[in-house]
Design a protein that fits this description.
The complex is a heterodimer of chains A (113) and B (114). Chain A is mainly beta. Chain A is built from no helices and nine strands. In chain A, the strands form two sheets. In chain A, strands 1-9-8-3-4 form a five-stranded mixed beta sheet, with no helix packed on it. A four-stranded antiparallel beta sheet of chain A has the order 2-7-6-5, with no helix packed on it. Chain B has strands at residues 3-7, 10-13, 19-26, 32-38, 45-52, 55-58, 64-70, 73-78, 87-94, 103-105, 109-113. In chain B, a hairpin with a 2-residue loop joins strand 7 (64-70) and strand 8. Classes of the chains: A mainly beta (113), B mainly beta (114).
Chain lengths: 113, 114
């Protein structure tokens, strides 16, 4: 699986937008970009995923670079409940038997009131 | 709707004792099933995954084993626990054949080996 690189930690202020970057320079054409987040002492939860086009859902937006070598998860208005570890994961849709997700170290987001 | 149950939520076991963690999924059929472990700090390590009854793939060699005796039941076991087996164990399921879909995680089992 292609690897991703994320900052170890980021800080945000409550009610401000947050841009969480992810680099994936070795991404292949069949890799989808997935984002999950993990609140303390809980299992990860799905946030969003995309292939080439930018994606929006009720939780966040995903902006994907034109060359697909990087992406950014955007939380439009951070709340205290958004404090979590955010994982950017590449998931091969073709050669990935069992649909595995391979997690990296993620970015720990702290939100200040 | 689909749900995933995992138990026990916490357990403290002595070194050398056996382990059994159980995970069941409701509301779907033929799911892909996964066991992950999270040691102190971040990063989830994929331990096992299964695409069907009796079909287990191991990602990391260790003294743990997994079994899938029924379609929606996934069990993680050990005959003799090591101190290094301590961690947060997470079961997850995903739709079979949909590698673009999300994985749904259980609430986890926290294991402390003393």
């Amino acid at each position: 699986d292609a690897k991703t690189t994320q900052p170890n930690s980021m800080e945000s202020n409550e009610e401000e937008p947050v841009h969480l970057p992810c680099n994936h320079s070795t991404i292949s054409g069949t890799d989808y970009i997935h984002w999950y987040r993990q609140l303390p002492s809980q299992g990860p939860e799905y946030v969003i995923h995309g292939l080439t086009s930018n994606v929006n859902n009720r939780m966040a937006s995903l902006a994907i670079a034109e060359d697909r070598k990087s992406s950014t998860l955007i939380l439009h208005r951070a709340t205290l409940r958004d404090a979590a570890v955010y994982y950017c994961i590449l998931r091969d849709v073709i050669g990935n038997q069992g649909g595995k997700l391979i997690f990296g170290q993620g970015t720990e987001l702290s939100v200040k009131p | 709707s689909q749900t995933i149950h995992q138990w026990p939520a916490t357990l403290v076991q002595p070194v050398g004792s056996p382990l059994s963690l159980e995970c069941t999924v409701e509301g779907t059929s033929n799911p892909n099933l996964y066991w992950y472990r999270q040691a102190a700090g971040r990063g989830l390590q994929l331990l096992f995954y299964s695409v069907g009854i009796g079909q287990i793939s191991s990602e990391v060699p260790q003294n743990l084993s997994a079994s899938r005796p029924q379609d929606r039941q996934f069990i993680l076991s050990s005959k003799k626990l090591l101190l290094s087996d301590s961690g947060f164990y997470l079961c997850a399921w995903g739709w079979r054949g949909r590698n673009t879909g999300e994985l749904f995680f259980g609430e986890g089992s926290r294991l402390t080996v003393l």
